[in-house]
Amino acid sequence: PNPSILILPGDGIGPEVMTEVRKIISWFGDKRGLQFDVSEDLVGGAAYDKHGKPLADETMAKAQEADAVLLGAVGGPAYDDLDFSVKPERGLLRLRKEMDLYSNLRPAQCFDALADFSSLKKDIVAGLDIMIVRELTSGVYFGEPRGIFEEGNERVGINTQRYTESEIERAARSAFELAMRRGKKVCSMEKANVMESGILWREVVTRVSADYPEVELSHMYADNGAMQLVRAPKQFDVILTDNLFGDILSDCAAMLTGSLGMLPSASLGAPMENGRPKALYEPVHGSAPDIAGQGKANPIACILSFAMALRYSFDQGSEADRLEAAVEKVLADGVRTADLLGEDGVEPVSTSQMGDAVLAALDAS
Ligand code: NAI
Ligand code: MG
């Protein structure tokens, strides 16, 4: 059977950018013989409108079976006042939790044509290609005890940073596996100077590294890591870090590369019976209600998320390279959606024109 992809377009610009990705998926079927069984379902506000909850049980079951899930974005003003238990975000959180997607991959890659767009100097970011691996299912966002408690005559807010050895180990393995396919360097970031979980993190990562003698491991305190990311980001290949530090460091790295409309992500879990990891691919951006329905959204983040699926779920690294090169070519040719425009008076293209430009570049590849 063909590998399966479950598409969950979601809300706002999610369906708009996903339309372009569907064109790209068809192109790989028609022109490269990569056939996928593609099905589509609802998530977020769109699912709430139909089922009264942001992810139906049948959809959850389909996601568990799929070789890869591709998600657009969820949320929007129409759902802001809903009860927390049925908010659109909860659909996404349920997917991540029940699929146990513990390893979040956030590339920060700077396309030459957009280097002027970075918040940093061009020579600091030109050619940048790093990957942040963030542990996604544990740490301080989940640790118990948590809550706001009475203590004496005032209240105290408590969260607990908690990591087991096995949680650290599986995140570390995914970083080392990734480094083997890239520049063979892992920099692990924690705060072992002030945190017990950081001490254990460093110890376990060092132990796992013995299984990957080709990979060069270094350790860095996360606060210094933030500084180094902005000072000299090209020193890194793979950065491995926990849930909280990863949240912050990946947003910081994102700004090295320019627009939110360019950033893909992957969240991976344990291997399934067929050897493929449980996997969810999605752009980093949200549903962008301010531009939804206007054909202005940049589809590249979602297209590059599909490139990650080709690479990490379907073992099609050279086809992923082909797709990324097509995006690079389109940008080098000066094709720009509105979010990528400077002051040079270039006319922006629409979402579908950008998708078509990528298809044309694929045809020429
Ligand atoms: P956002 O990412 O949706 O938008 C932030 C800004 O970036 C907006 O000005 C938007 O127009 C622009 N932008 C985002 N993606 C773009 C693209 N592909 N092309 C061009 N411009 C783009 O974040 P915001 O405004 O904080 O949240 C809007 C809604 O999205 C909220 O309901 C929020 O909860 C939800 N959200 C969903 C996420 C997800 O589905 N993973 C992630 C972040 C927010
Ligand atoms: Mg964040």
UniProtKB/TrEMBL annotation:
Cross-referenced InterPro entries: IsoCit/isopropylmalate_DH_CS, IsoPropMal-DH-like_dom, Isopropylmalate_DH
Cofactor: Mn(2+); Mg(2+)
Principal location: cytoplasm
Catalyzed chemical reaction(s): (2R,3S)-3-isopropylmalate + NAD(+) = 4-methyl-2-oxopentanoate + CO2 + NADH
Enzyme nomenclature, EC number: 1.1.1.85
UniProt-annotated site: Important for catalysis, residues: Y141, K191
PROSITE patterns, per the entry: IDH_IMDH (PS00470)
Occurrences of domain Isopropylmalate dehydrogenase-like (ranges): 4-358
Protein origin, superkingdom: Bacteria
Keywords, ordered alphabetically: Amino-acid biosynthesis, Branched-chain amino acid biosynthesis, Cytoplasm, Leucine biosynthesis, Magnesium, Manganese, Metal-binding, NAD, Oxidoreductase
Residues annotated for substrate binding in this entry: R96, R106, R134, D223
Cofactor binding mode and count: Binds 1 Mg(2+) or Mn(2+) ion per subunit.
Pfam families linked: Iso_dh
Binding site residues for NAD(+): 76-89, 286-298
GO molecular function terms noted in the UniProt entry: 3-isopropylmalate dehydrogenase activity; magnesium ion binding; NAD binding
GO CC terms, sorted: cytosol
KW Glycosyltransferase (keyword) present: no
Its job: Catalyzes the oxidation of 3-carboxy-2-hydroxy-4-methylpentanoate (3-isopropylmalate) to 3-carboxy-4-methyl-2-oxopentanoate. The product decarboxylates to 4-methyl-2 oxopentanoate.
Family membership: Belongs to the isocitrate and isopropylmalate dehydrogenases family. LeuB type 1 subfamily.
Assembly, per entry: Homodimer.
Entry protein name: 3-isopropylmalate dehydrogenase
Organism in which the protein naturally occurs: Leisingera methylohalidivorans DSM 14336
